[in-house]
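Quick one:
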Amino acid sequence: MIGPTRLHRYTYADYVALEQTSSTKHEFLDGEIYAMAGGSEEHSALCAQVLRLLGNAIGDRPCRVHTSDLRVYVESAGLATFPDGSVICGPLSQHEPSPTSTALNPTLLLEVTSDSSEDYDTGFKLEAYRSIPSLEEYVVVSHRERRITVHRRAPDRGWTATVGVRGGAVEVRSLGTTLTIDEVYRASAIC
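Output:
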């Protein structure tokens, strides 16, 4: 009889040490470490366009837009990941002092879906991100069609979702702006 295979469980410290020496980004989830796939040119362009529009909207607010180089740690889910973008309003609260910052307090998180990440971005990550106390909005940009979904924390601490499609717009209340769907996808081949 063959017994179950015992998987090696990593600590968060093991993960951070690996990240400091690796040329590949990894995600940490409940003791497991996963290599993150690189994105396509279309994915990169959509991320850049949304981050540019959000950055332009910040104005004089004490907020900063971050690319996927900033790791976010979701303690309640045991998840450390590199969202496609994030906005942090106020001082950065970090998980641990290290050469690579790990944010605990995003105000807004952005994911542009891909074939391999769509279910994860709109399933597990959505639920995990909702548990971040500081998070006000989670913006999901579709790679399949001109569609943006903004998941927003409600005053009662529940969540609502607003969907914008071609010709429409979605409000990003945390930054006091609106994303016009056609402007986000302006240079995109996505119809």
